[in-house]
Amino acid sequence: MSPLPSSSSAQPLHAATYATPFGSLAVVVTPEDGVVRGSGFRSVEEVASRVSPRLRGRGWVVAPINHVADAVEAWLHGDGTAITDVRAEQDGGPFFQAVWEAMRAIPSGQPESYADLAAAAGRPRAVRAAGTACARNNLAPFVPCHRVVKSGGALGNYGYGLDVKAAMLTMEASPAASLSSR
Predict the structure, then answer these.
(1) According to the model, what pLDDT value does residue 10 have?
(2) 134 is catalytic
(3) β-pairing verdict for 112-113 and 148-149
(4) CB 39, CB 49: distance < 8 Å
(5) Catalytic residue from among 51, 133, 145, 149
(6) All residues at 6 or more sequence positions from 180 whose CB lies less than 8 Å from its CB, including other chains
(7) Is 154 helix (H, G, I), strand (E, B) or coil?
């Protein structure tokens, strides 16, 4: 646990980890509303360090996050919308917010290109900026940047490795053959 500042009257953030075929998924939420504030295939400490500075000072405790556990399990068993149905928010300017919202609208099993993503976010010529928004996403897989590929179908980049991205895309393309936790 990260200690709470003595002047804080807010509850600490809640953190949990989930075993997935892609590695351990750490998730940090605000307990009062259940909104995911940080997530990724990193340690809880690293994920918590990337949460908005206005929330980070609350510290965090390991606690059950039932709605997230249910969503992750459903996603791993073929329900591609389960992860994007969970509320998730992170700091970023208007264009990044538009890109992240557009990412959440990409259907599971149907990856889109960075160009498509830029267009969906309202700035079709801002392909590189859309790629930067993907790289700065601190809410994977709830903001599913793994569903964005290069034009022509090449994987592009992924902060957790191309093998993880490829495995996630394969799972989502074949819901009947979806993976469960290893």
Answers:
(1) 86
(2) no
(3) parallel
(4) no
(5) 145
(6) 21, 76, 77
(7) coil
Helix, strand, or coil here: 42?
Answer: coil
The Cα 43–Cα 174 span in angstroms is: 28
Measuring CA to CA, how many Å separate 152 from each of 82, 109, 115, 117, 123? 27, 16, 11, 14, 20
Structure tokens at 134: 């993907």
The span from the CA of 153 to the CA of 112, in Å, is 8
Which of 5, 65, 57, 3 lies closest to 31 in space, CA to CA? Answer: 65
* Residue 18 C-beta-side C-alpha neighbours within 13 Å: 24
Distance CA 140, CA 93 (A): 18
pLDDT of residue 174: 86
pLDDT in tens, the chain (182 residues): 544 443 456 899 999 999 999 999 999 999 999 999 999 999 999 999 999 999 999 999 999 999 999 999 999 999 999 999 999 999 999 999 999 999 999 999 999 999 999 999 999 999 999 999 999 999 999 999 999 999 988 998 899 999 999 999 999 998 654 444 33
